[in-house]
Design a protein that fits this description.
The protein has about 400 residues and is largely without helices or strands. The chain is about 5% helix and about 5% strand. The chain has 2 helices and 7 strands. The strands form 3 sheets. It has a 3-stranded parallel β-sheet with strand order 3-6-7, with no helix packed on it. Strands 1-2 form a two-stranded antiparallel sheet.
């Protein structure tokens, strides 16, 4: 990253602000709105109490700078070097830290909640407010200090937060998908509804944390300290009993999901002998189990959207309360399999730019043997059962939406 020395007007403004902080004559508090400070070298700058909402610090260097209590609402720090910078008690609502370097940076008691950003509609010139969460996706937060920070709904997906401190932080519905949280400290943190899918938590401290409703699918908690944590309603694996090679594939698959295929590897279990294994509460979206031996396997509460089980042996497997939207079970042996409360619905397809394509993928059971299947309370949509064997299948209380070919006497 190439930075430049600040121009003379900026140097002068920083000097007057330093005098203001010191109480010297001629001092003036630094106040700018929406100003461009990008690609500037501002290392060790003293900007406590500065008012700088909406300013652009993209690709700037503020190593060891101090911005205590500064107003930085909606400011942009994309790819900035903020190593050892101090933001304690600053207002950083709606700020952008995508791919920023935040090693040993301090955010103690900092406001990192969503910011109501006003935008002008080009068509009619009307202003409208949009709630913008703080974005730290891909940032390097190694050993950063976010103790007591307020960061509800912040995006830390794929961030490197090894050894970071989040103790007592307010982190409602934070996105930690794919983040490396090795040895991080979440003791006493409020993590209700937070997503940890694909995250690494080896050595992490979750003592006394509020994890109600958190999504911990595919996360290995065996090396975490969860003493006193509130796990009510959280989706997680109580213990890991999967073979090492299977765990490795799950970890790589989690990174593959979190990075949209840029990292890790899609889980492919084609032809593998996986009888009786417990995949409960795992995130196996788009995983491949073609011709796999899965008799008696457990997939309760797992995320299996677009997973493919073509030709698999799933006799007496358990999919209770799993999300199997758009999954393919064509030709599978599902004799005695349980789908109680399972979602087997259509899933809309979106383009690479996240726009709806109008296409919906429904689950498939072509030529599957569903004899004795238990579908009580399942939600099933758009499935053609014409070619299935469904003798003695239990459909009591099932919500069958636009399904065809149902004949339980086959």
């Amino acid at each position: 990253m190439t930075t430049h020395l600040p121009p003379q007007p900026v140097i002068w403004a920083l000097s007057r602000h330093a005098a203001y902080l010191a109480g010297r004559n001629g001092g003036e508090r630094l106040q700018r709105k929406g100003e461009d400070f990008s690609k500037l070298q501002l290392d060790e700058a003293k900007l406590d109490d500065a008012i700088l909402p909406g300013c652009n610090f993209a690709q700037s260097s503020l190593v060891s700078a101090q911005l205590i209590r500064a107003d930085l609402f909606g400011s942009d720090f994309t790819r900035a070097d903020l190593t050892r910078t101090v933001f304690d008690r600053a207002d950083l609502r709606g700020a952008n830290f995508v791919l920023a370097t935040l090693r040993q940076t301090s955010f103690r008691q900092t406001d990192l909640r969503p910011g109501q950003i006003m935008r002008v509609d080009g068509a009619d010139g009307q202003e409208s407010g949009q709630s913008v969460p703080v974005n730290m996706s891909g940032a390097n937060l190694e050993e950063a200090n976010l103790k007591n920070a307020q960061m509800d709904q912040a995006n830390l997906s794929n961030a490197n937060a090894v050894g970071a401190t989040f103790a007592a932080a307010a982190m409602f519905a934070v996105n930690l998908t794919g983040a490396d949280l090795t040895n991080a400290d979440f003791s006493g943190a409020k993590l209700k509804g937070t997503t940890f899918v694909g995250a690494r938590l080896e050595g992490a401290r979750l003592t006394g944390a509020d994890l109600r409703g958190a999504n911990l699918r595919s996360v290995d908690l065996s090396q975490c300290d969860t003493t006193g944590a509130n796990m009510m309603g959280a989706i997680y694996r109580a213990e890991s009993h999967l073979p090492h090679n299977v765990e490795a594939r799950l970890a790589a698959h989690g990174r593959w999901i979190a990075s949209n295929g840029a990292e890790g590897e899609r889980a492919v279990f084609t032809g593998m002998r996986l009888q009786g294994l417990d995949f409960s509460s795992c995130d196996l979206r788009a995983a491949v189990f073609h011709d796999a031996h899965l008799a008696g396997a457990l997939f309760s509460r797992s995320q299996l959207m677009f997973a493919s089980f073509i030709g698999a042996d799933l006799r007496k497997a358990v999919f209770d309360q799993a999300d199997c939207g758009g999954s393919n079970l064509s030709g599978a042996n599902l004799a005695g399999t349980m789908f109680r409360g399972t979602r087997l619905v259509g899933v809309p397809i979106y383009s690479a730019t996240n726009k709806p394509t109008g296409r919906v993928v429904f689950p498939r059971f072509d030529n599957a043997d569903m004899g004795g299947c238990d579908l009580r309370g399942a939600v099933v949509e758009g499935v053609d059962f014409t070619s299935c064997k469904m003798a003695k299948a239990n459909l009591a209380g099932a919500d069958l939406r636009n399904c065809t070919g149902i004949n339980t006497r086959r």
